[in-house]
Amino acid sequence: MKITYYGHSCFSVVAGGKTILFDPFISGNELASGINPDDIKVDYIFVSHGHFDHSHDVVRIANNNDAMVVGSWELYTHFGAQGVKNVHPLNPGGKWSFDFGIAKGTAAVHSSSFQDGSYAGVAEGFAFKTEDGNFYYSGDTALTLDMTLVPKWVKLDFAALPIGDVLTMGIEDAIEAAKLLGVTHVLGVHYDTFGFIKVDKAAAIEAFRDAGLTLHLPEIGESITI
């Protein structure tokens, strides 16, 4: 599967003949200043929770592409009210068949609110079954044994996991998460954007390697294949 990283927790995956984007925070991220959100072509946008650093460019990119936005019930109603015409609810524990495959909402241990402090529903992650492969994006979360339920539903080819610590899992817990999920390939997200989540990338890659795992940390704008 082709994966393109856009900084922070924003990345896209090409699977099932569609391009699926996650948690777009680009125009508000100075590290991603070389990326123009208007140039991004996607079919779906999955939003894990309401925090600004995961939802900042949802409306802009969705309307540019007539892309379907998928998230919790609260995000579904919020983005619909913001003028997004193509929205679909998916709460943790629920699943839905899309034209690229099946997506299932999963539990995440994290807070969720809109920028004005109003309630944005529960945070979640997403697991996917597609003809091109299967993968999991945890969203922002702590390490949780709920992750053991994901491989009971689908055998994964890779997982996207936060590694920045402080607000989410750090490197050590992400390694444990990978073990719970039964994956050897991890796309690291949610790091470096803010001062308190900066990581030593070389040390992180080595720590995963020592655990028999491969940590992928592509540059912003770079595409890789897993």
UniProtKB/TrEMBL annotation:
All residue ranges annotated as the Metallo-beta-lactamase domain in the record: 7-190
InterPro entries: Metallo-B-lactamas, RibonucZ/Hydroxyglut_hydro, UPF0173_UPF0282_UlaG_hydrolase
Molecular function GO terms recorded: hydrolase activity
Keywords: Hydrolase
Record-linked Pfam families: Lactamase_B_3 (PF13483)
Keyword Cytoplasm: no
Keyword Cell membrane among UniProt keywords: no
NCBIfam families xref list: PRK00685.1
PANTHER family tied to this protein: UPF0173 METAL-DEPENDENT HYDROLASE MJ1163, UPF0173 METAL-DEPENDENT HYDROLASE MJ1163-RELATED
Name of the protein this chain belongs to: UPF0173 metal-dependent hydrolase YtkL
Species per Swiss-Prot/TrEMBL record: Dyadobacter endophyticus
Highest classification ranks of the organism: Bacteria, Pseudomonadati, Bacteroidota, Cytophagia, Cytophagales
Gene designation per UniProt: ytkL
